[in-house]
Amino acid sequence: MAKCILCNSNSLKVKFSFQDQYEDEYDLALCSDCGAQFLNPYPTDDQLNRAYATDYYGEGSKKFGDGVEKVLNFFRSLKAKHLSKLIKNGSKVLDVGCADGEFLHQLKSFGEYELHGLELEGKASQRALERGGFHLHIGPLSKESYEPKQFDLISLIHVFEHLPDPKMTVEILAEIINEKGYLYIEQPNIGSWQASMFKGKWLHLDPPRHLNLLSESVLIKLLDDFNFELISKSYFSPQFSPFGIQQSLLNLIYKKREVLYEHLKGNKEYTKDYSSINLFFQKLFHWLSFPIFVLTDAFASLFNKGATIRLVFRKRAS
C-alpha cells in the first residue's frame, strides 16, 4: 500500500489520474493527514532512468536553442540580482540542482561570492564542469555532502518537486545553512488556476520527474518545523508560468504531451510524428501568445493563483 511521501501516512485520496510522455499511468495522491500531494505509484528505477535520459537535458551545448536560452538568461539575471540583495560580498552560496551553472554564473555579476553547485551525474553536470567558475559537487544531496553551517544562501530553483524525500532534504538544508541564512525555493504552484484548469494535462505535473507537489501551506509548515521563517513570497513568474499554460493548451489538442517543449530542446525522436509545418506553428503560437500569457499570469498572481510560487525563508537564530 502506498504511503505519504512526507508523513508516511496511508490515508490517501486520488485527486485525478494521468499519463506521462511514455503513456505510463499515475495518480496525483493527496494525503488526508498532512495535505501533501505527490505522484503515485512511485516510479521504478527504469522509469526514472528513462525520464532523465540524455534527451531530457537537450541535444545541443545547452538545454534549449540560443533564442530560448537568451530569454531564460534574462530572467535568471533578474532572479540573481534579486537574491544578491539578501547577502554580502564574501557570502557562500549553494545552488542545489544547479544544472549547467548558469544561475551561479549570473550571480557573479552582482557581487563577490564563494559559489557552490550540486547536480546529479549526467549531461547537465558535464556542462557545469566545462563551464567552471564555481565549486561543483556531483551526486545527490546527503548529510555527508557539506559541513554544518556553511552557507549564507541556498537556492532550489524548480528542484524541490523532484525530491523523493522532501522532509529529509529540508533536514539537511537546516544543518548546512548558517543561522539567519536565506533559503530560496521556487516550484510549481499546485494551488494555481493552471493546475485546477488542466489537471492531468498540466505541463508542470511533469510525470514521472515531479515526485511531490507540496502546496504553499504544506511547504511553509514543513520549513517552519525546521526553524525556517517565511519572509517573502511571490506568484508571478514570466520565466515559467506563461509557457505552462501554452504547453498545457497544446496538451489538450495533441495525443502526446509536451511536444513543443521537446521540440524546443531539439528532441527529434520524440517529435518525429509531427510535421515541420506543425512544429513551426506550435513555435509561432508560443512566441506570439507569450505576452498575453504573461499578463494572465500577472493577473492570477494577484490572487495567489500564479502557476509558480517563489518563497524566501530565513533560518531563525537558535
Can you describe this structure?
The strands form 2 sheets. A 7-stranded mixed β-sheet has the order 6-5-4-7-8-10-9, sandwiched between helices. A 3-stranded antiparallel β-sheet has the order 1-2-3, with no helix packed on it. With 318 residues, the protein is of the alpha/beta class. 36% of the residues lie in helices and 21% in strands. The chain has one domain: Rossmann fold (3-Layer(aba) Sandwich), CATH 3.40.50. The longest helix is centred in the last third of the chain and has 26 residues, at 276-301. The chain is globular and about 55 Å long. The protein has helices at residues 45-51, 66-84, 102-107, 123-131, 166-176, 193-198, 216-225, 241-253, 259-264, 276-301, and strands at residues 12-19, 25-31, 37-40, 92-96, 114-119, 135-138, 151-157, 177-188, 228-234, 308-315. The model has no long low-confidence stretch (mean pLDDT 94).
Summarize this, please?
This protein is α/β, with parallel strands linked by helices and 318 residues long. The protein is built from ten helices and ten strands.
At CATH level 2, the architecture is 3-Layer(aba) Sandwich
**CATH domain topology:** Rossmann fold
- Low-confidence runs (pLDDT<50, min 5 residues)? none
Give the H and E element order.
Answer: EEEHHEHEHEEHEHHEHHHE
Task: Summarize the helices and strands and which ones pair or pack.
Elements: E1 12-19, E2 25-31, E3 37-40, H1 45-51, H2 66-84, E4 92-96, H3 102-107, E5 114-119, H4 123-131, E6 135-138, E7 151-157, H5 166-176, E8 177-188, H6 193-198, H7 216-225, E9 228-234, H8 241-253, H9 259-264, H10 276-301, E10 308-315
Helix pairs in contact: 8-10
